[in-house]
From TrEMBL:
Organism: Piaya cayana
Keywords: Membrane, Transmembrane, Transmembrane helix
A GO cellular component entry from the record: cytosol
Domain of life where this protein originates: Eukaryota
Pfam families with a match to the protein in the record: ARMH3_C (PF08427)
Residues covered by the Armadillo-like helical domain: 435-671
Protein name according to UniProt: ARMD3 protein
Amino acid sequence: MAQTEKKGGLLRKSSASKKPWKEKVVLMYDEIFTTEDPSKCNPRFWEELFLMKVNLEYLEGKLEALDGEELMKIKDNINCLFQHCIQALGEEHPIRVVNALQTLCALIRGVHQKNKSTSGFDIINMLVGFDKAELCMKNLMESLDSLLCAEGSESLKSLCLKLLLCLVTVTDNISQNTILEYVMINSIFEAILQILSSPLSRREHGYDAVVLLALLVNYRKYESVNPYIVKLSIVDDEATLNGMGLVIAQALSEYNRQYKDKEEEHQSGFFSALTNMVGSMFIADADEKISVQTNEAILLALYEAVHLNRNFITVLAQSHPEMGLMTTPTSPIPATPVTPLGTTPPSSDVISSAELPLDADVQTSNLLITFLKYSSIVMQDTKDEHRLHSGKLCLIILTCIAEDQYANAFLHDDNMNFRVNLHRMPMRHRKKAADKNLPCRPLVCAVLDLMVEFIVTHMMKEFPMDLYVRCIQIVHKLLCYQKKCRVRLHYTWRELWSALINLLKFLMSNETVLLAKHNIFTLALMVVNLFNMFITYGDTFLPTPSSYDELYYEIIRMHQNFDNLYSMVLRLSTNAGQWKEPASKVTHALVNIRAIINHFNPKIESYAAVNHISQLSEDQVLEVVRSNYDTLTLKLQDGLDQYERYSEQHKEAAFFKELVRSISINVRKNLAFNTLSQELLLKEFSTIS
């Protein structure tokens, strides 16, 4: 028996009854979890503790295992541990600093798990005690600020950011996290900017810094003055803003790359072969399997930058220095080269820096192109909640861009032409577009393409009304700019007109189902007024007189849809139901469209009769249109080129609160499972000097 025990690693026969061996740091934790002061028996207790490798799991587990009363009994020791962690952050030797940072992460997470249902005040009291909270948190924030701004270890900076993210996301609703009051008072904003402005720091820590900033900006943003909002809104340093743009572009670009890889893998797989054999009936199902985790945190950062800082708008159209191109190398280019998203096939150029691995189908790129491509992916499938939120946020960002005068200037600039390869949803009735045939055009064309693509592909039972409204508003705002500045954009306007008419047709075909959930007349009115905008002001912004003629041709060709719409809204506006008023607005808005149809249709029928033609060609109809403009009478409609500007606080507060909650939970989960391993950190500081 004794021999067996020896083989099992036991020292003596009686050792089976002994407690299992514990590492020293665990024994020291156990001392902290008693009611006695651990430094009474060992004056060097705290000094020794921070030389020990932290056991995160044990420390967090120990905290979680205690009930409320037991935790209160050892509150003094928890406070003492927290304070000694803060003191250790000022130590010269990095081993102590690393262990202190790790311990703080474990303490914060452990106490949070125990206090999920309680307020932030209780968490502060449990960690530091109310009486010492202000001074302790001031010292903590100053130490973290110093470590982030110092020339020292990148690993320490990384751990500081993890700790800050841990602090910020300690509650699901960050506005209920009272600890953040101390992060507001003792700002680390400048430290975050310093990280973003330095190429080395940005490469190592840019992502965490940008996510941290996005979360801090959302702390009680509607209830009080948030210093991070104020400071972010006035940043004008070019290097810092470009740095932030680069981090966001890199994250979005990585998503685009992963999606493209999965798409190619999917198309070359068994299912693709099966689809080719059976036909195209499975295309939609096949596409559903292509799923990459969306990144709402980085999208929120882009939104806050665009929404709060006018200077950031310039970053959208700029190529970063790290995105510079060099001539093609003599060695063969790999099958999936790491090149930026822009205008030419992959064989022409490669990127000169590994900092921003972008997609392979472009020569030059900027943040806006990367964002548009990202949007084209996430907006394909709005059935998934995360993608729905991402799609909505993409449209909100585009709304802010479409309202900005400077953004519109570069969107419509004829000297800034790009070939933007947007993702298109596979559909049975259309072929996949050949990427290489895309023309180089001003960036506004890609925005309009994205809007048209959304309109065409989301007419379904679970109708995303809110997204459609935003989509039409973006088109309207772009048209208002074109009308105001007399920009004659060479765009395939027919695709937009066709998409809008089909949308009206869909609303009418599904009137009963849609009216049970939505006020479809709001959307119908917006669509009709887009046509009114073209009819009333099209001569000032359509590229050629023939484009204006084609508008009339489309209205006349599709007149049955407008006639049906008029019949529907007339029926509902003459009843005393709930839709009387919104339907009557559409009735009034249709006046000029009906005037065009009623004026030209008899002329076209007369032309056909006189010339004995049963069916007129497009050119013949256009000839009739051009000959009869003079006798057409239209009413001047007011306010077509006016719109209500975007306002977050009044209309979007609930959406952003829920979005930030979701991001906070996700950031905390990823911190817990992926990022707090010590091995790499301690390798860097493997000797004690």
